[in-house]
Amino acid sequence: MLSDIKLAADGSGDEEVVVLQRLGLPDDHVTSVAWADLDRSVEPDHLTCLYVPHLGEPVGHELVRFHAIVRRLREECPWDRQQTHASLTRYAVEEIYELVEAIGELDAERASGDADAALEEELGDVLLQVFLHAAIAQQEGRFSVADVASTITEKMVRRHPHVFGDVAVSGAEHVARNWDAIKAAEKGSDAHASPLDGVPGALPALAYARELTAKAAKVGFDWDDAAGTLDKVTEELDEVRAAWDDADALRGEVGDLLLAIVNLARHRGVDPESALRVATAKFRARVAACQALATERGIDTRTAGLAAVDALWEEVKQGEPQPVADRNGVGDDRLAP
Questions:
Q1: Above pLDDT 90, what percent of the chain?
Q2: Alpha-carbon gap, residue 296 to 289, rounded angstroms
Q3: Contact at 8 Å (CB) between 106 and 122?
Q4: pLDDT at 115
Q5: Phi-psi region for residue 141, left (φ > 0), alpha (ψ -120 to 50) or beta?
Q6: Which pLDDT value is given to residue 12?
Q7: 59 with 66: CB under 8 angstroms?
Q8: Which has the closest alpha carbon to 243: 235, 233, 253?
Q9: 8-state DSSP, 43
Q10: CA-to-CA distance for 14 and 319, rounded, in angstroms?
């Protein structure tokens, strides 16, 4: 039986297991043995229990182990030792973008082990940034990763009274309204506060626009329905055409058009940042496929002309698996290169 446990639990050879035998009886016995020796040095009976640390609290065990590794890096690695909150900022940004890219590789219908492995790795890299910043703060006597976890835990409990309390909600929108109300109460009232406060200016432009318009909508700066945003996109597109020959005016009108499209996406429940990333990834793949096809056929796309390149584009597009939107005849995303 102990051999079966070793095979099933897959522990490391030098890990210790606590063996508890006949607790509460005159001959009770508690000892620790190496995982490798479990089925060699223990004689179990029906009053024998085992405590295997990595099975008892697998999440806590791994996080404690990781915390110890990061602390050691801060003490013994010259590179890690010289880092500050400011110097790590660029890496935090890079890791978040790499995480976003890994998420973009996931496909609900065709998810592969490789995609999951990439996502797992990128989540770990983001976690490293959290632990590094917390380790720096702990070394300076300010706060620790335990404080970080405690703070976010308390916030999640406080902002989910429908889960951890007796508040009833009717759905996700009700939850969001409660969240905003609780958050506002936490921040306190400020007569000079703007309804747009709290939106980080360092966000990517599309995400920034989406968050700003969402905040503005909560205080009445919005259309009654999505149809209004579609009319606004048409209006802004006409203004782009009118400003075509004026570079300064065109820059402003293009910005207005993009903002109108962000509003349209928000009203239809589409995240513009994610949508554009999907579109650009598709564009990148199609250009690469067109180039490969052109090389195979001896076509120079720089001189072949629009008609020839467009024919390659259509051929590549037709060979792709059709997404649901295209199968339903919605949103032809053909791009003239």
A1: 64
A2: 11
A3: no
A4: 87
A5: left
A6: 61
A7: no
A8: 253
A9: -
A10: 54
DSSP string, 228-281: HHHHHHHHHHHHHHHTTT-HHHHHHHHHHHHHHHHHHHHHTT--HHHHHHHHHH
> Which of 258, 250, 206 minimizes the C-alpha distance to 232?
258
Is the pTM higher than 0.85?
no
Domain range list for the chain: 2-56, 58-158, 205-267, 272-327
How many whole angstroms separate alpha carbon 10 and alpha carbon 320? Answer: 43
What distance in Å separates the CA atoms of residue 64 and residue 118, rounded to the nearest whole number?
Answer: 23
More confident residue, 306 or 202: 306
48-51 vs 16-21, strand pairing mode: antiparallel
For residue 69, give the 3-state DSSP assignment: helix
The β-bridge relationship of strands 29-34 and 48-51 is unpaired
Please, which pLDDT band fits residue 328 given cuts at 50, 70 and 90? very low
pLDDT band at 159 (very low <50, low <70, confident <90, very high): very high
257 in Cβ contact with 238 (< 8 Å): no
Lookup result for tokens 């905003």:
180
pLDDT digits (tens, 9 = 90+) for 252-297: 999 999 999 999 999 999 999 889 988 998 999 999 999 999 999 9
Q: CA 282, CA 328: separation in Å to the nearest integer?
A: 19
Report the run of H or E that residue 313 belongs to, with start and end.
helix 306-318
Top-tier CATH class for 205-267:
mainly alpha
Q: For the chain, what percent of residues have pLDDT higher than 70?
A: 90
Closest CA to 317 of 335, 292, 297: 335
Give CA separation, 214 vs 148, 176, 185, 196, 258, in Å: 28, 12, 19, 9, 15
Strand partners, 20: 30, 49
CATH number of 58-158: 1.10.287.1080
pLDDT band at 326 (very low <50, low <70, confident <90, very high): very low
58-158 and 205-267: same fold? yes
Q: How many beta carbons lie within 10 A of that of residue 237, not counting itself?
A: 15
Q: Residue 194 carries which side chain, given as an amino acid letter?
A: S
Per-residue pLDDT, 188: 78
